[in-house]
Specification:
Number of helices: 10
Strand order of the largest sheet: 1-2-5-6
Order of helices and strands: EHHHHEEEHHHEHEHH
Low-confidence stretches: none
Shape: globular
Mean pLDDT: 92
Number of strands: 6
Strand content: 5-15%
Helix content: 40-55%
Distance between the termini: 20 Å
Largest sheet: 4 strands, parallel
Structural class: alpha/beta
Length: 231
């Protein structure tokens, strides 16, 4: 079962989804979507329909659940992820009384939110609170893991870190350290292949999204690593 954003969603037949199905010889469910992040995964894991969809296809206990992480996911836990695309506040969470709660938006804010200048300013302001954003993303990913473990106690929950030559980040490292301590399996693409994943021949025309060739390098190594967790 796959979660994530457009990195996972794009090229589903020839990318991560299709190649995992080929190398693992298993059906692969893809619940990723363009511009999504940890908040959308958390939202889905709390919905019974997610588990019904999988069960309706005859599968009650997925062996692996993989969330593909990219660093931009930490920037998506704010109201305005994309200044030009999101003209209304997207789904997001905040921590209140030590619990994740969906952010509520009043009518006035929804109206003002349609102004590009407003979206630009709140995004710029919110992006400075990096440690807070990583904390929210941590709670979303850990919450997703805990929710999925209730339904699938024996399933391996894996975060695939899709790294494109980012510089080290202490807040990010701390987030993954805590997730690992809580039972989440962390696999970095850097562990799997020695390649610059921002190379032109390994990305789409936008220079960011992985193309089929990139996944063809990653997935065989990922599949071998996943098989080890079955024994």
């Amino acid at each position: 079962v796959l979660f994530g954003c457009s990195y996972t969603w794009l090229h589903n037949d020839t990318g991560l989804q299709g190649l995992l199905a080929k190398y693992m010889r298993r059906p692969v469910f893809n619940f990723a979507m363009y511009a999504w992040g940890g908040q959308h995964t958390y939202y889905l894991t709390k919905k019974p329909i997610l588990y019904k969809i999988i069960e309706n296809y005859g599968y009650k206990n997925p062996e692996y659940i993989i969330y593909t992480y990219i660093r931009d996911h930490v920037n998506r836990v704010v109201d305005a992820t994309d200044d030009l695309v999101h003209i209304t506040p997207q789904l997001n969470y905040e921590i209140k009384n030590n619990k994740l709660q969906i952010k509520k938006t009043n009518f006035l804010k929804k109206v003002v939110f349609r102004l590009f200048s407003y979206r630009y300013l709140i995004k710029k302001y919110q992006l400075f609170k990096e440690n807070e954003r990583y904390n929210i993303l941590y709670e979303l990913l850990l919450g997703s893991y805990n929710q999925l473990k209730k339904e699938y106690p024996n399933t391996k929950f894996i975060i695939l870190k899709y790294m494109q030559n980012e510089t080290p980040n202490e807040n990010e490292n701390e987030m993954f350290r805590k997730l690992g301590e809580n039972g989440v399996i962390i696999i970095s693409t850097k562990e799997l292949i020695d390649a610059d994943l921002k190379r032109k021949d390994l990305t789409d025309e936008d220079g960011y999204h992985p193309n089929t060739k990139a996944w063809e390098l990653i997935v065989p190594k990922l599949a071998k690593k996943l098989e080890l967790f079955l024994f």
